[in-house]
Amino acid sequence: MLRRGAISGLVAAALAATVGGEAGAAGRKAPPKVGVTEIKAGSGGTTLTLAAKAAPYPMKGSVYDDPTVVVFVPASYRLPASKKVDVVVHFHGHNTTARRVIGAHALREQVVESKQNAILVVPQGPVDASDGDFGKLMKSGGVARLLSEVLELCATKAASKALGDAGLGSAKGAGRVVASAHSGGYRAAAAAAQRGGVDLREVYLFDALYGELGAFADFASEPEKRHKLVSYAVAGKPLTNGEKLAKMLEARGVDLAVETGSRRVSRAEMVNSRAVFLLGSAATHASATYQERALRDCMLASCLVGHDTKAWHAAKQKQR
């Protein structure tokens, strides 16, 4: 089982900002230079692959050493007057990579379909391993440090040229942050909710509620902040834990929207409820993030600002 990732195919050195450092222990490659390592333009936007110092890894004492962070900026993105960048951070599950899931789970396509003015950030956790420890992002302020560096790297000359009107060159930090997690990524989402150091407004769990019920209950019921939690469950433990969490939140007086086998929640319920429990009737565990366009629906009902979402919200009595 591969436990050490490495970034291949680095673009010209002009794209990379250097950072000092020496090679690790014997037998391990020196980490790649910090910077933008690849830029790919597509019809929906631009994907930038970064090697980031604040990425989950490398981290002292860990065997993982891949510093990859994949960033997608929709072509429609425009920096708002506040200069603050709204961000969706997605934590992948076990036995995969950030590069793989951003394509296989249609994450970019769903961000585009949501028409929200936000960028997508997918950090690399353990590479192809049954492990949900996202290293430095599990520590206090870890998400804040990552997003600060991501915005800095996305403001480099090469990145700005590729992004054009969607550029982040004059950004003044992260604005509203949403955390999305599939499967084993729930641990990183819980850490972000407890100590990420950012203005985390919403958490989406795609067949991912395997634990940390207390952390998610505290997040959704925090009295001084308008937080939202969405749990999309297919079967098994995420489903039974969802039932437990719904009862915990109901006891705390949190507004709930709970989907049943015979009834889907409405768009208005998804927008207005602080905790939403959805059922994946057509999805499998592997496809929970994308089969029913679940991430897109969560983003449409979110605190994020949309470019052209009035029609979706106008039909508020429709099912999601």
Low-confidence parts lasting 5 or more residues at pLDDT below 50?
Answer: 1-27
Order of helices and strands: EEEEHHEHHEHEHEHEHEHH
The radius of gyration computed from the alpha-carbon positions, rounded to a whole number of angstroms, is: 19 Å
How many strands?
Answer: 10
Q: Widest sheet: strand order?
A: 1-2-3-5-4-6-7-8-10-9
Helix and strand content put the structural class at alpha/beta
Morphology call = globular
Folded structure, characterized:
This protein is α/β, with parallel strands linked by helices. It has one domain (37-314): Rossmann fold (3-Layer(aba) Sandwich), CATH 3.40.50. Helix content is 27%, strand content 20%. It is built from ten helices and ten strands. It has helices at residues 98-104, 107-114, 142-153, 157-163, 186-195, 213-221, 236-251, 267-272, 294-300, 310-314; strands at 35-41, 45-51, 68-74, 85-91, 119-123, 174-182, 199-206, 228-233, 256-258, 275-279. It has a ten-stranded mixed sheet, with helices on both faces. Strand 7, helix 6 (213-221) and strand 8 form a beta-alpha-beta unit. Helix 2 (107-114) runs parallel beside helix 9 and helix 6 (213-221) packs across helix 7 (236-251). The chain is globular. The termini are far apart. Mean pLDDT is 91; it is low at 1-27.
